[in-house]
Design a protein that fits this description.
The complex is a heterodimer of chains A (872) and B (243). Chain A contains 34 helices and 21 strands. With 872 residues, chain A is of the alpha/beta class. In chain A, strand 13 and strand 14 form a beta hairpin. In chain A, the strands form 6 sheets. Chain A has a 7-stranded mixed beta sheet with strand order 8-7-9-10-21-20-17, sandwiched between helices. In chain A, strands 4-3-5-6 form a 4-stranded mixed beta sheet, covered by helices on one side. The mean pLDDT of chain A is 84. In chain A, helix 12 crosses helix 13 and helix 17 runs antiparallel to helix 31. Chain A folds into 4 domains: 283 residues, no CATH class; 123 residues, Glutaredoxin, CATH 3.40.30.10; 250 residues, no CATH class; 91 residues. The termini of chain B are far apart. The radius of gyration of chain B is 18 Å and the shape is globular. In chain B, the strands form 2 sheets. In chain B, strands 6-7-8-3-9-10 form a 6-stranded mixed beta sheet, with helices on both faces. A 4-stranded antiparallel beta sheet of chain B has the order 2-1-4-5. In chain B, helix 3 crosses helix 4. By secondary structure, chain B is an alpha/beta fold. Classes of the chains: A alpha/beta (872), B alpha/beta (243).
Chain lengths: 872, 243
Amino acid sequence: MTRLLDALTAIYLRELRAYFLTPLAYVFIAVCLLALGAFTFEIGRLFDTNRVDLSPFFFFHPWVFLVFLPAVSMRLWAEEARGGTIELLLTVPAPTIALVAGKFLAAWTVAFATLAATTPIWISMNVLGAPDNAAIAVAYLMSLFMAGGYIAIGAAMSAMSGNQVVAFVLSASVGFLITAAGLPVVGSGLAAVFGPGGADMLAALSLLGHFETAQRGVLELRSIVYFAAVIGVFLAINTVWVEARRSSGASRLTHPLAVTGLALILFCGGVLTTHRALSGARLDLTSSRLFTLSQGTRATLARISGPIDLALVFSRAAAADYPALRAHGERVSELMRGVAAQSGGKVRVTLQDPPPYSEAEDRAAAAGLTPAPVEGGDPVYFGVIGRNSVDDEIAIPFLAPERDAMLEYELVRLIAQLDDPSPPKVAVITALPGQFDPSGRPQSFIMRELARAFDIELAPDDFVSLPEDADLLLIVHPWGLNPWQTYQIDQFLLRKGRAIIAVDPAARAVIADPRPTASFQSTLPGVLDSLGVSMTTGVTVDASLGLPVETDVGGGRRVLEAQPLFIGAPAANLDRTDVITSELTRPVNFGLAGSFETVPREGLAYTPLVFTSAAAARAPVELALSNPRPADVVRGSTATMKPEVLALRVSGRWRTAFPGAIPDPVLPEDPIFARMASQELQALPPRVTESQGAGEVVLLADADVFDDGFFVNPSDGSPLADNAALILNAVDNLWGDDALVSLRSRTPALRPMALVDRMRETARRRLYSEQEALEVELQSTEARVAELNAQRAALGGGAEAEDEAVRTELKRFQEEVVSIRGRLREVERSFRRDIDALEARLELVNVWLPPALVLIIGLFVYIRRQSAGARP
Amino acid sequence: MQLLNVDQLTKTFPRVPAVRGVSFSVSEGEVVAVLGPNGAGKSTTLRMIAGYLEPDSGDAEIAGFSIRREAMRARSRLGYLPEGAPLYLDLTPHAFLAFIARLHGLHGPAGRSAVERVEADARLSGVMDRTIETLSKGYRRRVAIAAAILHDPPVLVLDEPTDGLDPNQKVAMRALIRRMAERKAIVISTHQFDEVEAMCPRVVLIHRGSVVADETSAALAGRTLSGRIADAFHALTADGEAA
């Protein structure tokens, strides 16, 4: 053992010298750094993403390593063979494996040095914002492992060929094969030949697939096993080829070739076996623990009585051409296995792969599964059918990959529903356009999401009573309610105590509606009063939380700038203790919101859920409606000097808003409907004057929170902000299922380059103030010029001296107008200057500086060595 | 005492001349020349002894350890100078010798003293800190010899140690070998007769992979009327030329 270590150390130190005491390693590292930096910034456009996320950087690692690392490892054995020194190495009393390992470790150290030299980019991210450092560390670690894989391959090829050029070509080719195996193009091609199993196996064998999981910040045991296996197998192959030099004849080729083949077969078998067996073993280091069963799931699984059967239906053969679906299928089945394991036998999971035109396929369709919209070919079913002990059946019709963030929630919701199959009922009153289609079906994102989990009942415009079996009332932009209907709302609130109410001083969705059927303004005066809450007048403005909107800054230039009328309240502006908001990671977007003020009342407690910064102001509704420029909004509003409340939870007991006479019901004119309405009135429960139990009401000072235009990505229909999560959380929480609340918003927070955002904001503010000052100056100067011109005209031809004086002054002012205009242009130009300078600085530090430094060190070492060698 | 015992070593190559059952032995204090025409199997035999090539059959014992069953022990008792004396040209003799010492498990003070010893033995003191590529051929050969005797092995196998050296360098090299001869068993492969006459009391003549003579150089020289080794060599190996 000591002999092995002695030899290993000796070779390791010798190879390190060979790399680092000659210019070799420095040139390689510098080229690699330059390639990585240039790709990251020029192709990956890291700076333009405005995110402190290094995926554009790690994305290029496999491809750069693929070329660079064979160049590092090609000399390891080929040089020994060429120089004959291999004869020295093979005749010392040291095991060959020690020599192989020592050489491998030395080349790996070069890779380590390369990765270490890229740390400026990691530091840069920390300067620019708050990156997920644990995730980056995982990616770095796996990148190092991956580099080890490429080097082991390269070293083996070097030993096999005994020639540097051949070794380079061989190892780049083998490296490419093992990397590209995971590419969709290879995968789907193979799937056509070997079926979906073949493509899956290939993906499991591919370096790329394993590195991609790591890039997301998940340390998977099977990936570590995989990389260790790549390194181990190729070091073994390396050893066999070195040892083969001792033998002669045909066996010098056939023997190591046979061993190589056997080792590769064992490798594939081993990796494929462990790939399945170790699929759940992972260390989730993402900051939002994206890939770990959450507390809410565990709570729900502990609560249910079971047994519940879940069948994952996935047409694998038909899905083979869709890598996104295939990858998602893998993720879903992993998650379901995890859930089954956690449930302690209460949830049982089966996988079904219905062949086309089979009974199984018909059963899947009958259970409510809808095939994916694919062009031609067989239908792809990808859904879950759940069944409980009394044979209730609920299905998730289709698991769209883009809904990945909601996956765990949907699954757990399904389990909870099967355990208690009657979904809560939500009655909805709304005058906001775009929420329901004309036939009353949910249309907006939030309403569709609600309909997935709850029984939604839209109250007609002329309702005379609210459904008595409703568990919760959702009011969005109430308008045109008659007193009787308001009284019904009051009574519902007192009896059931559960409601979400969104009122709005100016609903954008109404303003944008070409044929509005409601006023843009809504309120619910009596009911809000009874809760001790009032809406302020005007629109709440917050310059520090404004959402980016493209505006005209004059001179025909359009820039993205923060519109303070549209507020994106980030996690910091959400209550971190209330269960509704505590788990949200992304902002909640508001458009032309009001704000709430409270008159504290006995028996009632108020929790602000969403609030502005202290820099809030209030703008008149007229200004807000005039489509103003951000600068005009800031100018036209009055500071309130305190955070304004945009969403509020009211808890406790309250008294009716109708203490006196009860308003008369308004019956429909149609006699049949009128008769039905009066029957409804007969069935009404008796009047109550105070809360029948402790109530919980969530109030929102804006109806546009519900509007898709404020948070849904129009291109793919995915949410960009946590508006829907907020509302669904509120419904779940008010209805009483907190376990699900924690599951909802698990989308990782986008991590912006905060520094850049701040700089942009500062630059914009400076632009406005300078622009404003110069414009005022320009106006007064131009006015003075006009005045002087008039004066000259009045003087006519006489009074030479006086005319001369006026002319001189006129000339002076005209020059000043020109100079002010010039300064204005200059101010506009300077708008992006600081940010451009920052980008240039970042590129300098990350693309050019590291390779330059490495080269300088290399040059220094080279010169020193040269002069030492020349010394007599 | 026999320190090297070669027993029926055999190696076949597809196109290259093979070694067929070569046997000989060398005792302490003895310097034996392995003589033969080019391609007779000299280097192959020495490479098998050194462990660089694996024999197809046969064995050799180095200080009592079999090169097949106890390879590590056998190798650690052998100093080997490969044909052409390969070196790492980018290293200094100092770094090279330290590297070889570590490979032999000599590090720290033991390694330093071993390097100092061979530095003196091989007369390298002036050149220890120059890179090997800047050294003359004679010095390079001395560095290679120094590496072979670094771990003070009882058996030395030197494959053409003076090949390519100028006469002065040859004289120095011979002196070095002679200094070491007393306590070791030394095998030198060569095809130069003056070398044999100068250093080796005994000759093992190999031709076409087999030992055709194993006797004192005097006996070998006495086989011909002229009394010269060259003529005996020619008489015993002439058919090789005709083939």
